[in-house]
Amino acid sequence: MTDIDVDAYLARIGATRPEKTDYEALCYLQERHLMTVPFETLSFVEREIPSMTEEFVFDKIVRRRRGGGCGELNSAFALLLKSLGFRVVPLGGRVLHNGHSAFRGVHNGHLVLRVELDQSYLVDVGFRWASRRPLKIAERGMQKDEHGEYQLVHTPQGDIEMVHDGVLRWRAETHPRDLEDFEPLMWYFATSPDASSAGQLWASIVTDTGRVSLFNRVLTRHRDGGKESRELTDDAEFIAEFEKWFGITLTEVPDLPRASQGV
């Protein structure tokens, strides 16, 4: 593993260095990451091919203060956790719901992390319905936090399915994956006209009262159990709102399709 500037990464997420590598520290770091580093697919819109190498994700998220897709965010978070002494295993997943309807996403189209402490936990900082705290893999019942009710369902095939507020969101394999296994998907999402990401801009960040999401030009604020959406038709307003919520400065608005609903 490449040595990274851990203090710079902690400063990026507004966190102090934990004294122990325990469950409380993991909860703290996961929450800080979710509230400071946005999920965003700007690279895919601009047809830039991301990478999951340590140097790439550290430069993009820490030095350039960007966000990224699930692969970039979770691989970067794994890098931070490992540098702090946590035991982390990448797992390949498949998204099964896009927020509006069920579908079958591509294999290794999602990346989650297994962290080994007193027991095994699932950690995800790259999914807009992710739990705010780690999920206990051995727990069969409901696990609740500020983001809703979660349940991990263990399938007969040995996979784990994550159900959020009654909706099946993704399925993950339980055997370890190398980060190189996900690199072809980075190329696919960035270049294929058949990919769900083709020409579409998603962004999402956790807030104290919920989250703020963007789908193309539709900005949606989720707070206190409700949500409100509006379309950002003016380019100057779009640029201002994108920087306000996601911390990314744009010089121009990408060519985006019209969206009829928020996320």
TrEMBL record:
Domain of life: Bacteria
GO MF term (any one): acetyltransferase activity
InterPro entries: Arylamine_N-AcTrfase, Papain-like_cys_pep_sf
UniProt record similarity statement: Belongs to the arylamine N-acetyltransferase family.
Name the record gives this protein: N-hydroxyarylamine O-acetyltransferase
Lineage: Bacteria, Bacillati, Actinomycetota, Actinomycetes, Kitasatosporales
